[in-house]
Amino acid sequence: MSRSPSLPDRPTLDVDPESTPEEHLDALHDHYGEILEVHEQLQDQLDEVESRREELREEVNRLQRENETLKTASLYLATVEDLPEDGNAVIKQHGNNQEVLTELSPRLAEKLEVGDRVAINDSFSVQRVLSDETDARAQAMEVDESPTVEYDDIGGLDEQLREVREAVEDPLVNPEKFDAVGVEPPSGVLLHGPPGTGKTMLAKAVANQTDATFIKMAGSELVRKFIGEGSRLVRDLFELADQKEPAIIFIDEIDAVAAKRTDSKTSGDAEVQRTMMQLLSEMDGFDERGDVRIIAATNRFDMLDSAILRPGRFDRLIEVPNPVEEARERILEIHAAEMNVAESVDFTDLARDTDGFSGAQLASLTTEAGMFAIRDDRREVRREDFDDAYEKLVAEGDDEEFGASYPSYIQ
Ligand SMILES: Nc1ncnc2c1ncn2[C@@H]1O[C@H](COP(=O)(O)OP(=O)(O)OP(=O)(O)O)[C@@H](O)[C@H]1O
Fold first, then answer.
1. Which helix (H) or strand (E) holds 89?
2. Is the CB of 206 under 6 A from ligand 1?
3. Least confident residue range of 75-84, 236-245, 263-272
């Protein structure tokens, strides 16, 4: 830092009262010269101060920009593992599990506790403490204390329902049956089949029937939204189920975390691997769990790592296919049950004409038909509404929502 320059001495005018007018003029002349000199010195100092001010202004701008960048820069997530001594913390970075001893600012040192989730920068310095982990939990998991889906709401999956009840409901409701015979109930049930065929419904209905809490976690979200937190969230998922027992854990799109291993060593893959290892280890410790059952679902059975299918893990595989004609009729009836459908609408006919539709697509067809009747200011839904709905859905068939396009029955 440069100090402010000292001011030059102020020139004084010394005139001898006895001096002649010429001498007086000379003195005034000299004085004027001295004043000019001081003026120049002051001007130089002023220039110097101006340029210093300019430098400082630039410095302030630079710091402001840096501050902005710091505020908006991406930070990594970590957990406080230990607080060994005043002002220091051992933190473990999520994703690569690297442990680092880092110095804390006095403000953070006061409030940080072991187990806190924190955001750290490139130099591992803790930038802020994140709100309670339950936030991530709440976002990553859907908890439904009392789901309302009933077995009767599910159309055409009688055999699948029987198997799910045997593998999930019986061990929860009649554990003594298994004890008496001396067999372990199946550990995990894996439902596999195309999208929208009722896999989630099956899991919710069995939770409803057994008065269990339904806890859903989507594998795709674990890898997309909660990067670096996957394995921790899987641990949390099982912990939460323990607290809420009886509980049914439903892992949707399990293929996202349990796909066949690839040779690639990218960190994303490593992270997914860790999440899967955590899931496997939770399942292996499953025997000691009380009333917690686990159901997973996938549309990509072919992609699953065989490790996940070993005995003691997902060892009950249940295929949930697209509904056959009879099932389609039942599903249409279920979804139209509350609707005012004209007598002329023949669901057997409609079921025949909707070959290849999933349960979810049939549900949309019914709702859309109802919308067409409303638009036409009618109180009853007619066959033509179903046809219009069909055409609309086929037109939207390329939409992501439905994935595959609708099969065509209107020529
Ligand atoms: N068998 C069915 N009986 C009645 N309704 C069904 C059936 N299958 C699907 N549906 C309807 O489709 C909706 C979506 O079904 P669900 O979420 O259970 O499918 P999913 O197989 O889990 O799909 P995804 O694989 O896309 O998660 C349900 O809420 C229901 O309205």
1. strand 88-93
2. no
3. 263-272
| Cα 114 to Cα 104: distance, rounded to the nearest angstrom | 13
The response to whether residue 253 sits with its C-beta less than 6 Å from ligand 1 reads: no
SS3 215: strand
Report helix, strand or coil for 129: strand
Q: How far apart are CA 293 and CA 212, in angstroms?
A: 9
Q: How many Å apart are CA 222 and CA 296, to the nearest integer?
A: 14
CA gyration radius for the chain? 37
Crossing angle for the helix pair 359-375 and 325-336, nearest 10 degrees? 40
Taking the C-alpha atoms of 227, 233, 235 and 239 in order, what is their torsion angle to the nearest 10 degrees? 180
312 is an annotated ligand-binding site residue: no
Query: How many angstroms does the Cα of residue 358 sit away from the middle of ligand 1?
Result: 8
Between 361 and 134, whose confidence is greater?
Answer: 361
219 CB within 6 A, ligand 1: no
Is 196 marked within a binding site? yes
User: Which tens digit of pLDDT belongs to each residue from 35-56?
Assistant: 999 999 999 999 999 999 999 9
ipTM: 0.97
* pLDDT tens figures, 112-130: 888 888 888 888 888 888 7
Q: How far apart are CA 193 and CA 329, in angstroms?
A: 20
Provide, for the chain, the percentages of residues in helix, strand and coil under a 3-state DSSP scheme, each rounded to the nearest 5: 50, 15, 35
Give per-residue burial for 292-317: e unless 16+ CB within 10 Å, then b. bbbbbbbbeeeebbeebeeeebbbbe
Q: Whose CA is nearest to atom 18 of ligand 1?
A: 198
